[in-house]
Design brief:
Distance between the termini: 64 Å
Radius of gyration: 26 Å
Strand content: 15-25%
Largest sheet: 5 strands, antiparallel
CATH topology of the largest domain: Alpha-D-Glucose-1,6-Bisphosphate, Chain A, domain 4
Structural class: alpha+beta
Order of helices and strands: EEEHEEHHHEHHHEEEEHHEEHHHEEHH
Strand order of the largest sheet: 6-10-9-8-7
Shape: elongated
Length: 387
């Protein structure tokens, strides 16, 4: 058995932390620090009032200053902190060994990046999160995971069980979990005395999941990946919860449209097989921060329509892109051949898909079951379903 030596300390700038040394060569060490504690200490030093959560802030008198302080918690500050405490604490390498070249180098074993949305009323946050779970239980599907984390999925990755969604309920507080390889994205609803918050956090347990090295100098790259994943998930969830497509906008989509330059585009009728397939593909690509190309849509749309990709020409895809653009659902990214959904487009695509899947498709299944039952002269009525 190998012994480990733990040092539990409190730093004036960083708060509580621990440093662990292994007693066996090469005497590996592990440092555990908390950025939230650093932020709270720095706000106290600046005499800026705030109300703390156990792992974040509920409120702050100067949010911009707090954000600037949080951004300053970088790899350079962590490196200086580590070297400072190596000089203060006993560890396996005395001065002679260090002079001989035996030194510690910091690498990232695990990094957590979190965003917290604070609600004015706790009940609003709970209602939002319960709706999020109902609408986004498929966030862990491979085609969505590759967009959330901006990674191209390989067949082995998509089928080995490392891309999945879980909903865990502890007591009455549910949490939503999305997994990609060794990376874990978690959402949960926090309540406290004076408010409530939705916590979204991405934990990267292996930087190689994103082709990034482990040395501490790579922390900014991991930070960008973690916060981008958090924001993309929240963007999709916001649209799914607060999707406002008015009757007039919906009616306009059912008719051909002509723009100011005289360009005409055919209607995007609700329930049309090609339109629904097109919108389903756009939903899959909606999180892609770099937009999407004609050639990315073609194979997916051909698959949705049950046809071969070589039968679905580039001209047919260009026709659909033109329709979407003239209806204001997509826009071209400047200086590129890529497109992205507009805010209106994201809302329209979502409501078309959700309404079709939950209303018409369900109704069709019920009618098919009803015909089957009447043919056998066995009709059962469940009173609870009538209610």
């Amino acid at each position: 058995m190998v012994n480990f030596y733990y040092f539990y300390c409190v730093d004036g700038d960083l708060g509580p932390f621990f440093l662990k040394f292994c007693s066996y060569f090469p005497y590996a060490a592990k440092l555990c620090i908390n950025g939230n504690e650093y932020l709270k200490r720095q706000l106290d030093k600046r005499a800026i009032g705030f109300e703390a959560l156990d792992n974040g802030l509920l409120s702050c008198e100067e949010p911009a200053t707090a954000q600037a302080v949080a951004n300053g918690f970088n790899e350079h500050r962590i490196e200086r902190f580590f070297r400072k405490w190596l000089k203060l604490l006993p560890h396996p390498f005395p001065a002679a060994d260090r002079k001989a070249g035996y030194l510690y180098k910091l690498s990232v074993l695990q990094a957590e990046f979190a965003l917290t949305q604070v609600w004015d009323r706790p009940v609003h946050g709970r209602e939002f999160f319960e709706q999020v779970i109902r609408d986004n239980i498929d966030l862990g599907r491979p085609e969505k995971v590759q967009l959330i984390f901006a990674r191209k999925m390989r067949k082995t990755t998509a089928t080995d069980g490392r891309c999945r969604t879980r909903v865990i309920t502890e007591g009455v507080i549910p949490s939503l979990h999305v997994y990609y390889k060794n990376t874990h994205l978690k959402q949960y609803h926090k309540t406290c005395k004076s408010g409530a918050a939705l916590r979204t956090e991405t934990t990267i347990n292996n930087s190689y999941d994103f082709a990034v090295g482990r040395l501490i100098r790579n922390l900014p790259k991991l930070r960008d990946i973690g916060f981008a994943a958090n924001r993309r998930v929240l963007e999709v969830e916001t649209v799914s919860h607060d999707n406002r497509v008015g009757a007039l906008a919906f009616d306009t989509l059912q008719k051909p449209v002509t723009n100011d330059e005289g360009q005409r585009a055919s209607a995007l009728r609700f329930g049309d097989g090609r339109v629904q397939a097109l919108f389903a593909v756009l939903m899959l690509l909606s999180l892609n921060i770099e937009g999407f190309r004609n050639r990315q849509l073609r194979p997916l749309l051909a698959q949705m329509l049950g046809s071969q990709e070589n039968q679905f020409t580039q001209g047919r895809m260009t026709y659909d892109l033109r329709r979407l653009r003239l209806h204001g659902l997509i826009e071209r990214i400047e200086t590129t051949h890529r497109y992205q959904l507009t805010r209106k487009g994201l809302g329209v695509v979502f409501i078309y898909q959700r309404t079709y899947a939950r209303l018409l498709r369900s109704l069709g299944d019920e009618r098919e079951n009803d015909r089957h039952e009447r043919n056998h002269c066995e009709i059962a009525i469940n009173p609870s379903s009538l209610a």
